[in-house]
Amino acid sequence: MMNAGVLKVVAKGDREIIGTREFNAPRTMVWDAFTKPELLKRWFLGPDGWELTVCDIDLRVGGAYRYVWYRELDKVSMGMGGVYREIAEPKKLVTTEKFDQAWYPGGMVGTLDLAEKGEKGERSAITHTFVYDTKEARDMVLQSPMEQGMAAGYERMDVFLATMVAEAGKKENAS
Prior knowledge:
Blueprint: E1 8-12, E2 16-23, H1 27-35, H2 37-43, E3 50-57, E4 64-71, E5 76-88, E6 92-99, E7 108-117, E8 123-132, H3 135-143, H4 146-174
Antiparallel strand pairs: 1-2, 2-8, 3-4, 4-5, 5-6, 6-7, 7-8
Helix pairs in contact: 1-2
């Protein structure tokens, strides 16, 4: 069993990276955090100092998404986007990925699987599988600070989800 809050990243085969993590929030809340622009902008920020300034999502098979991050310190922006290949709310999301300024060759297909945990589904687990076009691309990503970036992002997401869970609890108690 995974520990809540601990990201585990492993390489598989020649072209895959798999990240797993648990969250103390229901699966539907985690799904929303990954698919709603107004929620992504609150946690999907990248390293400290970056802001998600563009977050466009057309959540349908064949629909596109686009993210652009901006760092005020040096006026640098970084953009990426892709297409939704499969959507099974709130269980699975499959997307393509391509950066504007490619830092690895080719593209990537990401599969996000979400599972309920706990007796009442009050927790969830994600498995994020990234399949790169080549072994070279996968190895470049493994050698980058990708794991630290994912861990930092998921830590931010954890804090954000804790706030959402607390707000939902207050609304429930007020009813």
